[in-house]
Amino acid sequence: MSPTTAVDGNSSTNKKFKVTVVGSGNWGSVAAKLIGSNTLKLSSFHDEVRMWVFEETLPSGEKLTDVINRDNENVKYLPGIKLGRNVVADPDLVNAVKDANMLVFVTPHQFMEGICRRLVGKVRSDAEAISLIKGMEVKMEGPCMISSLISELLGINCCVLMGANIANEIAKEMFSEATVGYREHREVAERWVNLFSTTYFIVSPVQDVEGVELCGTLKNVVALAAGFVDGLDMGNNTKAAIMRIGLREMRVFSKLMFSSVKDNTFFESCGVADLITTCLGGRNRKVAEAFARNGGKRSFDELEAEMLQGQKLQGVSTAKEVYEVLSKRGWQELFPLFTTVHEITIGHLPPSAIVEHSEHTPNFSLVEGSAQYY
Ligand SMILES: NC(=O)c1ccc[n+]([C@@H]2O[C@H](COP(=O)([O-])OP(=O)(O)OC[C@H]3O[C@@H](n4cnc5c(N)ncnc54)[C@H](O)[C@@H]3O)[C@@H](O)[C@H]2O)c1
């Protein structure tokens, strides 16, 4: 559907949807801006978009929330971009979600379990959720995707939105695409598509929550590998090879975890396009390059604090989580790139190991298209 002709498809019920964005980092702020511009145009949504802010005191002594509400700008995580007057920052998590029936979750993944636990019993029972979060939790019983965590803890349905979406570029309204993954209800997916779509942000639905979410999660591990290659001054051929091997590991890992994952998902914006943009320009690539240039002698934590000014890296923790899944199942040799990235990040291997180890071609025919080893 053309975003300029987007209809809200809600005339039969006349129910107005109220949106809250949980999270206000770089992508969270851009998501609030996108959504806020659409709720003003689409009659089935309330104009106001609430945005929960993890409160911080700025160097000026002011509260971040007060500055956002006064200047319409998240001066810490998205400086120079106006969010729109209908985006209202709220430091009180429970208050921010209490009236909403559309909840957009967009925080670094490591904070999500705590946030969900604080929200148990506090969200509307008819609420629908969408997760823009890249990452997963590893529990004793196995990996848990963030959309499942939200559904299980809050008892609500959860879609996902992922894609080649470097937030600062979308903030400047440069053309890009994204993918909404949904489980069952096409009309819910289309409501999310309408809420996010603009002339410069084209969103397509696919019925494959886990495939879309795993693409968004795993590509951050491949981006670390691409950053090591850049830091070692290897060329474009090497980087392309790393991306290809990474994409293959993403696909095999996803299909082993969830037999429902579809091959076509890897050709959507959430798949190959997100992998390319993250390996060319994202923050995981950038910090991994610095790590390799320093010969692995400065830790990721130190580099993250120095280079990202409060923004969070997802790739290092995701690499650890993926490694836990692989080692529990004895799959390390089937996933040499994922395994090597983790071992480099914890200092067990030098950054140069990224090409030494990736040259082994595992026999994926053992596992391809099958979930029975999981
Ligand atoms: N930035 C991008 O370009 C981009 C694009 C697509 C997806 N994503 C994904 O979106 C998610 C959110 O990333 P982002 O870029 O909006 O955030 P960010 O890394 O820019 O900012 C970090 C956020 O975490 C908050 N925070 C810090 N400590 C916290 C705590 N203890 N509890 C709760 N919140 C805390 C900060 O206030 C800030 O809002 C991540 O999963 C990321 O992978 C980011």
Kindly list the characteristics that best describe this protein.
globular; 45% helix; 374 residues; N-(1-d-carboxylethyl)-l-norvaline Dehydrogenase, domain 2; 15 helices; Rossmann fold; disordered N terminus
How would you briefly describe this protein structure?
The protein contains 15 helices and ten strands.
Describe this structure in words.
- This protein has 374 residues and is α/β, with parallel strands linked by helices.
- The chain folds into two domains: 3-210, 3-Layer(aba) Sandwich (Rossmann fold); 222-366, N-(1-d-carboxylethyl)-l-norvaline Dehydrogenase, domain 2 (Orthogonal Bundle), CATH 1.10.1040.
- Helix content is 45%, strand content 14%.
- It has 15 helices and ten strands.
- Strands 3-2-1-4-5-8-9-10 form an eight-stranded mixed beta sheet, with helices on both faces. It has a two-stranded antiparallel sheet with strand order 6-7.
- Helix 1 (26-39) links the parallel strand 1 (17-22) and strand 2 (45-52).
- Helix 8 (209-231) packs parallel to helix 11 (283-293), helix 8 (209-231) crosses helix 14 and helix 13 crosses helix 14 (336-345).
- The longest helix has 23 residues, at 209-231.
- Mean pLDDT is 91; it is low at 1-12, 363-367 and 369-374.
- The structure holds nicotinamide-adenine-dinucleotide (NAD).
- Residues 23-28, 54, 77, 106-109, 111, 132-135, 165-167, 311-312, 314 line the site of nicotinamide-adenine-dinucleotide.
